Amino acid sequence: MSEALDRLAQAYGIEPSYISERGARCVVSDETKRGLLAALGVAAADEDEVLASLRSAPEPDPIGGAVPIETQCFMPDWLKEGHVWGITCQLYGLRSARNWGIGDFEDLAVLAELAASAGADFVGVNPLHALFLADPTRYSPYSPSSRQFLNPLYISIDALAPTATGVDATALQAARASELIDYGAVARLKREALHAIYRGFRASSRQSGDESGSLAAFRAERGTALRRFALYEALSADLVGRGYHGGWHSWPESYRNPGSDEVRRFEEKHEADIEFHMWVQWVAETQLRQAQQRAIAAGMRIGLYLDLAVGVAPDGAETWSQPGTVITAARLGCPPDMFNEAGQDWGLLPLSPTALTARGFAPFAAVLSELMRSAGAVRIDHAMGLMRLFLIPADAQATDGAYLHYPLADMLRVLAQISQQRSAIVIGEDLGTVPPGFREVMRDAEIQGYRVLYFEREDNGWFRAPDGYAHRALACLSTHDLATVKGWWCGSDIDERKRLGWYAAESALQMRAERAGDRILLLAALKHAGLLPGDFDAVLDGGATCPAELPAELLVAAHALLAKTASRLVAVQLEDLAGMKEQANLPGTTNEHPNWRRKLPIDLENIVESELFRDIVGAVSRERPRLP
């Protein structure tokens, strides 16, 4: 039975075993194979069913081997042998005197202009996908309701109505002053303001007898997808008002099918609400597009660098409005690795490879096209998903998952075609368990890799020299899922995991000892590159103690080291420019850590005047000047 089951699993793209991040072979259990086959709609309860399913199984795509590369992703001629840098940030965390307690598209445009004046060619942000407007407690940007539309909380209200009336000034001031983002307060304020502004917009349109031409064009171009999304938003808001959750899994059965009679009756009765949500999306896209235009006008050659989440929430607009395009009986995650011995369950749903093939890859193309509409570059989170994804069957633990293969050649073809159409550079986040040969495929397809200094090591553990970095890559010191440079230096990430009970006291001590060694290795790397400030030679020589907190001059030197790498693109985190110690997200936590809620400790208007900001961007721009 096991041999036949293996043949059936492989026929549907399920790997019977895989190599872990640490090089160990992990064998997938028969129970997991059956669970994933069931999620794909394939019966495998006994040998007769297996044999019957094998007879009707598709010809399996080869696992490994040559992958035909029909078209490469876009790469401008000036960058093929060039080197640029940019700033990345968590948009929600931007502070400014004018925003409403959360960073917005006006803040993004201002940041792009400020970064351009310092010599940067791009500004990158967290995913801007639509979340759950009716339920602001669901604020993870990597768990979207829909990847085809935008999060309205990023709309700049004052750009729409500079003198908006009826605003609760006390609540607005509290939202601005809070150390962590109060998503509930921000959502209430912005929803009320958007409704009021829309009423004025509609009244003006009726009086003039003419709807905005760009809004009409937007609605016509987005068509059914926009209307179905707006219907979902209106229905979600109505049902939350009646005590249900924002996601459709909690809704009455009659509302769970977008084609039901009950949904049609709701649609007829709530046309004004549906039109409001279409208008909101038009406003959001208009402001995002204007931010890109301002970035380019300020001198950036790439502009906005947007992020694509790897999957969607099980109960959001995308799964409700496009039934059949996702695998619903399995969840995305990753196998055990150096950060989490139990693996990770992200609770997200992936696109179905069967549905993608049957629909000519239209669902994938639609997501990419919308993402690249206002972007000069995009980052694909967990880029290995172009080839395979780690799926966890329903009711199973993350340790009991397996890899499901996707039609890589077709995924690359669609990605490259839209990248060329939109003139958008593609960066693939290739961290974690990377299958053999995948990075070579990325190289051939002109997908830029992702290189994090913490992980760029030689076999002896030493940090890789700058000229050893891949050219076709984006290099950075850290990411939103890792400690900031200051936090890494002092081990705050280790302390936090120990506080949560993830590390025993003995393990934490061992990790702190390893981190102490890493600090010395970083100093040695700076010394080798000619960047170590003279005061720290004594630390390397053993004549002085390594400082417990990261000195500013070492933070600047680390960024200069980053800028020297051979990688085409270098990204500097705004959190590091602001001298933050805390990281944006701690994977594996929900309420235990303030994920996706931290604000910068300094206003956008003032950060560029800080000495640390000027020193770091000065060091980076000297190594990577913007050449004509």
How are the secondary structure elements laid out?
Elements: H1 2-11, E1 17-19, E2 25-27, H2 30-39, H3 47-56, H4 77-80, E3 84-89, H5 105-117, E4 122-125, E5 129-130, E6 146-150, H6 157-160, H7 169-177, H8 183-208, H9 213-241, H10 261-269, H11 271-297, E7 303-308, H12 317-321, E8 330-334, E9 344-348, H13 353-358, H14 362-372, E10 377-380, E11 388-393, E12 402-405, H15 408-422, E13 425-428, H16 438-444, E14 449-452, E15 473-476, H17 485-490, H18 492-499, H19 505-528, H20 537-541, H21 552-563, E16 569-573, H22 574-577, H23 604-607, H24 611-623
Parallel strand pairs: 3-4, 3-16, 4-7, 7-10, 10-13, 14-15, 15-16
Antiparallel strand pairs: 1-2, 5-6, 8-9, 8-11, 11-12
List its salient traits.
628 residues; alpha/beta; 24 helices; 11% strand
Report on the structure:
The chain is of the alpha/beta class. Among the domains are: 1-60, no CATH class; 141-284, no CATH class; 449-567 and 578-588 and 596-618, no CATH class. Helices cover 43% and strands 11% of the residues. Strands 13-10-7-4-3-16-15-14 form an 8-stranded parallel beta sheet. The protein has a 4-stranded antiparallel beta sheet with strand order 9-8-11-12. A two-stranded antiparallel ribbon has the order 1-2.
Give the structure's gist in a few sentences.
This protein is of the alpha/beta class and 628 residues long.
Give the radius of gyration.
25 Å
Question: What summary fits the major beta sheet?
Answer: 8 strands, parallel
What proportion of the residues is helical, as a percent range? Answer: 40-55%
Low-confidence stretches: none
Number of strands: 16
Shape: globular
Mean pLDDT reading: 93
Strand order of the largest sheet: 13-10-7-4-3-16-15-14
Number of helices: 24
Strand content: 5-15%
Structural class: alpha/beta
Q: Termini distance?
A: 65 Å
